[in-house]
Amino acid sequence: MARSKLSASLIAAVVCSAMLAGCGDRGALSSAEKRNLDRFTAEEIYKRGEFELENSRRPGEAVFFFSEVERLYPYSEWAKRALIMQAYGHHRAKDYEEARGAAQRFLDTYPGDADAAYAQYLLALSYYDQIDEVGRDQGLTFQALQALRRVIEEYPDSEYARSAILKFDLAFDHLAAKEMEIGRYYLKRGHYSSAINRFRVVVEEFQTTTQTPEALLRLTEAYLALGLTDEAQTAGAILGHNFQSSPFYQDAYAQLRGRGLSATVQGDSWLTSVYRQMIQGRWL
Q: Measured between alpha carbons, how far is 19 from 13 in angstroms, rounded to an integer?
């Protein structure tokens, strides 16, 4: 009798698994099938979600199954795993706001879990992957930087820290590029003071980015246009000291030489302070 019951249970499990797998062969589940998911175990529903992610182009369908695991078996280990997979599925579907929501719920519910680092990384990616072209608003870039910094600082030994550092640097450079774009706009139109303010931000706040050499060249140009030769020469000196092989330095050197000037430190401006800090090893 016991053997008969055991056989019946095994047969039922096989049938359930086959039904779920079979749905993947013929497409999405019908509404009736979705309503009857409580007939299946948490593991079976979870694995159907994995199947959708791996074998179909419908990440939204996968998210449905993972959310059903959480709804039907809220206190199970499978529910925890399903929640992080919801975040991943939403991200795959480019539903970035939903991805952030699921990732944050995981962090709030399971802050000490081994997958917390991945949840924070997914949350950061949901901002990072939305960073627009340089010419648009950079609010998401700031949010990406904050979220990436949390991965780096809170999970420094995780497998996601290195990727977060690389993406942080790229996002940081993105912000500097925005300042450069605005500065070039002002410079082209002869608004030299406004242009200088933008290039100064790059030199003082984004000095480790790839935008710094050009910012120093544009400062040289703007100061020369205003007749402020001390500042122009000092900008050229900083550029020459750190980026002598850069074409931006060659351009700045030519402009200075054309005015009978040299790329040397002159006067006592904010650029002079930057040069002194750089020589003492506190800049770049």
A: 10
Domain boundaries along the sequence of the chain: 40-174, 176-280
Task: Note the pLDDT tens digit of each residue in 249-283.
Answer: 999 999 999 999 999 999 999 999 999 887 655 54
Q: What per-residue confidence (pLDDT) applies to 230?
A: 97
SS3 string of 131-182?
CCCCCCCCHHHHHHHHHHHHHHHHCCCCCCHHHHHHHHHHHHHHHHHHHHHH
Domain 176-280: what homologous superfamily? Tetratricopeptide repeat domain (1.25.40.10)
Identity (one letter) of the amino acid at 100? Answer: R
Same fold, 40-174 and 176-280: yes
**Which of 95, 96, 97, 65 is closest to 83 using CA atoms?**
65
Distances (CA, A) of 284 to 188, 203, 242: 28, 10, 8
| Number of neighbouring beta carbons within 10 Å of residue 145 | 21
Low-confidence ranges of the chain (pLDDT < 50): 1-27, 32, 283-284
For the segment 139-148, what is each residue's pLDDT rounded down to a tens digit?
Answer: 889 999 999 9
Cβ distance 140 to 131 under 8 Å? Answer: yes
Residue 149 CB neighbours (<10 A): 14
Helix (H, G, I), strand (E, B) or coil at 22: helix
Number of H helices and E strands in the chain, helices first, is 14, 0
Q: Give the dihedral of Cα atoms 259, 264, 265, 266; nearest 10 deg.
A: -30
CA distances from 210 to 44, 155, 171, 243 (A): 50, 27, 12, 11
The highest-level CATH class for domain 40-174 is mainly alpha
Q: Which residues, in sequence order, are CB contacts of 211 under 8 Å at separation 6+?
A: 173, 176, 177, 179, 180, 202
